[in-house]
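> example.struct
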């Protein structure tokens, strides 16, 4: 369903739901001209043209008073200025895409900049209950080999999650390459407790050291465990390690627990007890 069809369906009960909505729009990439983008955002039935909320409501004046009186009025904002706003439902529009020859530029505007992952995290966490994502760009079209920008890599992970509707199981990485001895020790202890565990799940900066598989839903994880090992220190700053990475992983649906090496070396049985408690 495209955004016009969605808004047309919404028209039937818009009177009750107008105040629940916000629109978060990423800056347009190299696919659409301004005119084409505005045309794609115009809903002929409800009269909304999503360049901003004032212009949108001007197309349909009977909703303007209702919007002004609403406790939380409709908003239309881009990635740069959506911080601080929340709604029950957010329509998230991705304006990037390939050109007419199918070439995708890896220039994603503010997401390429330092701190772009924080801007993305703000944008994708504005919905209280539901977010609808509209995009012509598919996550697999974003080539991780062509960028090191955390914001762009986070966008790919977010779009993959939106596309699949769940976190998919990822294959384990060979322990001799990436898994520390402590990771393996914790994994073995959990296996003895009857839990199915995978190590080094994910990719890039979004790697989780251990993931406990949900026994009822084998393609889901009940808990992700992050250690202060190689994956942890691969991130350049404390902010990335303590704020950015956990925020992005939680945004993607992970329940996380941090295990410190010193705690495992001092009291491994207590660590396992805490993990089991967290799982339950």
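> example.seq
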């Amino acid at each position: 369903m495209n955004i016009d069809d969605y808004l047309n369906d919404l028209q039937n009960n818009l009177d009750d739901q107008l105040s629940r909505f916000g629109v978060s729009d990423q800056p347009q990439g190299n696919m659409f001209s301004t005119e084409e983008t505005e045309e794609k955002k115009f809903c002929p039935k409800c009269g909304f043209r999503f360049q901003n909320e004032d212009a949108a409501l001007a197309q349909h004046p009977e909703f303007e008073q209702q919007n002004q009186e609403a406790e939380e009025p409709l908003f239309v904002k881009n990635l740069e200025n959506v911080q601080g706003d929340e709604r029950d439902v957010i329509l998230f529009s991705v304006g990037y895409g390939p050109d007419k020859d199918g070439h995708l530029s890896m220039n994603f505007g503010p997401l390429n900049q330092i701190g772009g992952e924080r801007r993305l995290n703000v944008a994708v966490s504005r919905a209280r209950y539901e977010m609808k994502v509209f995009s012509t760009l598919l996550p697999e079209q974003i080539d991780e080999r062509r960028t090191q920008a955390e914001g762009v890599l986070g966008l790919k992970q977010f779009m993959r999650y939106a596309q699949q509707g769940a976190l998919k199981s990822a294959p384990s990485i060979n322990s001799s390459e990436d898994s520390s001895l402590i990771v393996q020790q914790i994994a073995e202890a959990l296996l003895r407790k009857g839990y199915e565990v995978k190590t080094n799940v994910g990719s890039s900066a979004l790697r989780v050291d251990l993931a406990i598989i949900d026994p009822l839903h084998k393609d889901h994880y009940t808990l992700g465990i992050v250690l202060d090992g190689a994956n942890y220190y691969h991130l350049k700053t404390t902010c990335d390690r303590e704020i950015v990475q956990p925020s992005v992983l939680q945004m993607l649906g992970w329940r996380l627990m941090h295990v410190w090496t010193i705690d495992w070396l001092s009291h491994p049985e207590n660590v396992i007890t805490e993990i089991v408690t967290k799982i339950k």
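> remarks
The longest strand covers residues 127-135.
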